[in-house]
Write a structure and sequence with these properties.
The relative contact order is 0.18. It is globular and about 40 Å long. By secondary structure, the chain is an alpha/beta fold.
Length: 191
């Protein structure tokens, strides 16, 4: 079982993980995070300063057990801050007034293996990685240089700035790369 950190229904995330056979629970309970097979940090509000005590504790609980973490949008930003990185508070060109914009990226390493060297991704954010956190490596960038994906050098941690749950399975889009391979790969890490 994977813990989706937060409060709410998170239907799109649950559907994407369910499509690859992952059972989910939504919670902010650190004790539950200690027992789960992985942690998904979803998109959401802005991060100003550091992370909250509970979110930090949930990440610690999963990292201490070397279980996989997937950060999506705000979740990738949270991982970057957790590892000591900083964020741009406001960037241009990655958010529309409504819905997702789709833009070209350049991928390498793991992300190139999963999505190809030039994936089109859905974007909806105005914060982004400024200074990279310790142990993180960039494996995907937008054409303007904004970091779109990071992996940790020694831990099973992956963060993506875009929304793969909104471009795979039942929400597959014709104008964006199919991100199902990302969820299949991550599911294999949680076993």
């Amino acid at each position: 079982m994977v813990l989706i950190y937060g409060e709410g229904t998170f239907d799109n995330y649950r559907a994407a993980l369910g499509a690859v056979g992952i059972e989910t629970v939504v919670s902010m309970d650190t004790a539950l995070a200690r027992r789960c097979g992985g942690l998904l940090l979803p998109g959401g509000g802005d991060i100003f300063g550091g992370l909250g005590r509970r979110e930090t504790a949930a990440i610690n609980a999963v990292i201490c057990r070397r279980r996989p973490i997937l950060g999506i949008c705000r979740g990738m930003q949270a991982l970057n801050v957790y590892f000591g990185g900083t964020l741009h508070d406001r960037i241009a060109g990655h958010q529309l007034p409504q819905g997702d914009m789709v833009h070209l990226t350049r991928a390498e390493g793991l992300m190139a293996q999963l999505l190809g060297p030039s994936p089109l991704v859905t974007s909806n954010h105005h914060q982004a990685v400024k200074t990279l956190g310790r142990g993180l490596t960039v494996c995907q960038r937008a054409e303007d240089g904004i970091v779109e994906a990071v992996v940790h050098e020694t831990l099973p941690v992956l963060g993506v700035q875009y929304h793969p749950e909104r471009q795979s399975f039942r929400l597959r889009r014709d104008d964006a790369s199919d991100a199902a391979a990302l969820f299949r790969w991550w599911a294999a890490q949680t076993e």
